[in-house]
Amino acid sequence: MKYDEVKIILDDWDYKDSEEYLEALHNRKIWDNLNHLSDQECRGSVLTFLNLWKCRISYHRSNKLAKSCKRAHVFLSALKHENLLELNLFKKVRVRNERIEVYKVILKIFDILSEVQHVKATAASKIMHLANPNLFVMWDDQIAENYGYSGNSAGYVNFLMRMKVEASKMEKEYSRDKKVKVPLTRLLDIYNWKHKDDWKIENTFEGETV
């Protein structure tokens, strides 16, 4: 994956899609305070965004999803200073009164969010990304399959490590490009989504896995 290839895709990207994404991303009152998420906020902000992106989750699930977001918040907060480029799966972070490896925290977040009926892997990754756009990359079942990963929490952690490798190839050019207004993690998602129907990647990644 090269930055020039991603930029070509970005220049052609749907403006309405970008506008909806940035509006959701900048709603930090919601994403930074999931521990206080109300049913109404879940319907109006979280589910509205997920369903604009074709997750097809019933608004009747708002109560259960809000509860899961509240449960996930303490684990998301433990990773608030982590970013994809420096991701170390075996670093320990504090969660309440424990020190837990980063990969275990990610597994926990993913499992909590995806346990709600119809939320599953795709929507869970979107919530995680908006909660911490510097760390988490969105995916869906087909993107996971293209990279050769299972669509579960362990597969997502391994996918993140692969995305770390891809991000490191583009970081210098991305940091110099002042025109791009989305996080590097979003650029990776755009590239993956654009190509998901026409290629599969030979999975020769030899980085950290769980």
Q: Can you give a write-up of this model?
A:
The protein contains 10 helices and 2 strands, in the order αααααββααααα. With 210 residues, the chain is mostly helical. Strand 1 and strand 2 form a beta hairpin. It has a domain at 3-13 and 74-195. A two-stranded antiparallel sheet has the order 1-2.
Name the descriptors.
mainly alpha; two-stranded antiparallel ribbon; 210 residues
As a whole number of angstroms, the C-alpha radius of gyration is 16 Å
Number of H- or I-type helical stretches: 10
Distance between the termini: 23 Å
Shape estimate = globular
Strand adjacency order, main sheet: 1-2
Structural class determined from secondary elements: mainly alpha
> What is the string of helix and strand elements?
HHHHHEEHHHHH
Assign a percent range to the helix content. 55-70%
Q: State the low-pLDDT regions, or none.
A: none
What kind of sheet is the major sheet?
A: 2 strands, antiparallel
In round numbers, the mean pLDDT is 90
Strand tally: 2
* Strand percent estimate: under 5%
SSE order and pairing:
Elements (H helix, E strand, L loop, with lengths): L2 H9 L3 H11 L2 H4 L7 H14 L9 H17 L13 E4 L2 E4 H13 L5 H12 L9 H7 L5 H24 L7 H12 L15
Antiparallel strand pairs: 1-2
Helix pairs in contact: 1-10, 4-5, 5-6, 6-7, 6-9
At a glance:
The protein has 210 residues and is mainly α. It has 10 helices and 2 strands.
